[in-house]
Every structure is written in C-alpha cells, then in structure tokens.
Specification:
CATH topology of the largest domain: Rossmann fold
Strand content: 15-25%
Pathway: Cofactor biosynthesis; coenzyme A biosynthesis; CoA from (R)-pantothenate: step 5/5
GO molecular function: ATP binding; dephospho-CoA kinase activity
Distance between the termini: 33 Å
Protein name: Dephospho-CoA kinase
Family: Belongs to the CoaE family.
Shape: globular
Helix content: 40-55%
Largest sheet: 5 strands, parallel
Order of helices and strands: EHEHHHHEEHHHEHHEEHEEE
Radius of gyration: 21 Å
Number of strands: 10
Enzyme class: transferase
Structural class: alpha/beta
CATH class of the largest domain: Alpha Beta
Strand order of the largest sheet: 2-3-1-4-5
Length: about 300
C-alpha cells in the first residue's frame, strides 16, 4: 500500500487533483467529506458540537449550520482547538476504516485540509501540496463559493503558511493555470512517480536511478518517517544529505524491522542498508544494532 497525503490551503483546488487521482486508480479518503459525515443529524459528533457550542449552530431542520459554527469556531484559537478536539478523532477513526477496506495493494490518497497543522506528514510515503497564492484563493472563495471576504481571509489566516507547507512537501503542485493543465500535471506525476513508487513498495525493491535531491527539509522528513515506522524499536535516528543512520533499541535486530522499512518505502539492498523506493528522490538508510549488542 502506498499512502499519499494531499493538502493545500482552502481554495487551492485539492478537489481537482483528487478527482484526477481517483480517475487514475487511487482510493480517495476525503477528510472534508468524512468531516461532514461524522456530524450528520443523529450522530454523536453533532451532539458533541451542540454541547460545546450551543444550539445556535443548528439549522431549522436540526442539521449543522456550518456558517454559524464557523463564525464561532474560527473566532479564536481556543474555540478552534475545541472544534478540532471533537471532530479529529471521529474523522481519524472513519478514515482508518476506509483505508482498511481499500486493500493492501491500493494507492491511498488522504485529502486532509489540516495535514500540516496537525503534523501528520510523517505518516505518508509522499505529501502533495496543491498551491495557489492567498489572494487568488480569496478571489476563488468569494467568487465561486459565495463566502464573505472576511470569512475567507480568516480561514486562510488560521491555516499553515506557505513556508510550513513547503517544509513537508514532497510534491509542490501549482494549480495556477487551467484545469486541463492541472489534470495533465497530475497524470504525469502518476506515471512518473506514484505508480512506479507503489509497484516498488509492493515488491520491496529500491527505485532505479532516483536522483539525489538533498536538503535540510527532506532530512527532517526522512527522520520523521523513520521514527513513525520504527517507533520504540529505534533508539536514535539522524539524517544528513538524504543519508539516514538508525540505531536500534536494545534487543532489536535488523531483520525484525526489515519488512516494516520496506513497507514504508525503504527496500533492503544489503545487510543493514536500505534504499528509497521513491523514483523521485534517492535516500539511503543504514541500520545498526546498539554497540555491544549480541550479533548472534
């Protein structure tokens, strides 16, 4: 299974990218859609929101009045945190159900509006950022969604900055041209990177001829992904120039973590060494046991 995180600022056009990925064969797990499902009338999620924010967030038919909720929840950090504490666990549980149902060979694309803000980028083989500058997003939100300009700007301000998004981006997809151009870029990304990456992960093999594109931000992402993959089985993880060094926890062998690393996109090449399965970026991971550990 290849897991891709898809995100971008509100109004950036993630839905266009997600639709094209779905047409190419990806299983889309849409965070916004799930967020609506878990607060439909009669759900525990809606009951929790009413308890937290009052009955004024309900429409006449008993459904959630989203503009009314937004006016409260996006007014300050405390209210936004309260909203997230209610909805995020519900969205996470439902997302996990959909991923499980997709099967082990699927390409999963999780469309997560707050992927950067919630610091979940290390969970994914790839993170795709869909980008449009803030002023264009305001124009889109006001023009196509009928959102008040002040509301649009408040929502944009509450989300991650472009710099924060760049720090987690494996793919920076600019959605500034026509829809046809964006769809063509997605198709090229699928053919050149996503499909071969998925095939490599399924076969537990490294990418052939992947370019070395080392930068400090990638080193941080590499370390994060290895920590997520290995958890308590690692005692230290460092990276420099797309070369990572992992020291395993006491009693943990390289063989014990090899399949997990391969599933995470780091295929074995020789004893204690793994290479990235991503055709878009080379990386090397060297894994060793703690000094003095029994090597038998």
């Amino acid at each position: 299974m290849l897991r891709i995180g898809l995100t971008g600022g509100i109004g950036a056009g993630k839905s266009t990218v997600a639709k094209e990925l779905a047409a190419l064969g990806a299983a889309i797990v849409d965070g916004d859609k799930i967020a609506r499902e878990v607060v439909e009338p009669g759900t525990p999620g809606l009951a929790a929101l009413v308890e937290a924010f009052g009955e004024g967030i309900l429409a006449d038919d008993g459904s959630l009045n989203r503009p009314a909720l937004a006016a409260i929840a996006f007014s300050d950090d405390e209210s936004r945190a309260k909203l997230n504490a209610i909805t995020h666990p519900l969205v996470g549980a439902r997302s996990a159900e959909l991923i499980e149902a997709a099967g082990p060979d699927a390409v999963i694309v999780q469309d997560i509006p707050l992927l950067v803000e919630n610091k979940v980028a290390p969970m994914f083989h790839l993170v795709i950022i869909v980008w449009v500058d803030a002023e264009e997003r305001v124009r889109r939100l006001v023009g196509s969604r009928g959102m008040a300009e002040d509301d649009a700007r408040a929502r944009i301000a509450a989300q991650a900055t472009d710099e924060q998004r760049r720090a987690v981006a494996d793919v920076w997809l600019e959605n500034t041209g026509t829809e046809d151009a964006t769809r063509a870029a997605v198709r090229a990304l699928w053919a050149d990177r996503i499909a071969p990456f998925a095939a490599n992960v399924a076969a537990h093999r490294p990418a052939d001829g992947a370019p070395l594109v080392a930068d400090a931000a990638y080193d941080e992402r590499l370390v994060g992904r290895l920590w997520v993959t290995l958890g308590a089985d690692a005692s230290s993880v460092t990276a420099d120039g797309a070369e990572a060094a992992v020291v395993l926890a006491d009693g943990v062998t390289v063989d014990a973590v090899a399949d997990r690393l391969a599933d995470a996109g780091f295929a074995p090449t020789e004893p204690g060494e793994f290479a990235s399965s991503d055709p878009g970026r080379a990386a090397t991971v060297r894994v060793e046991r703690q000094a003095g550990a029994d090597t038998a």
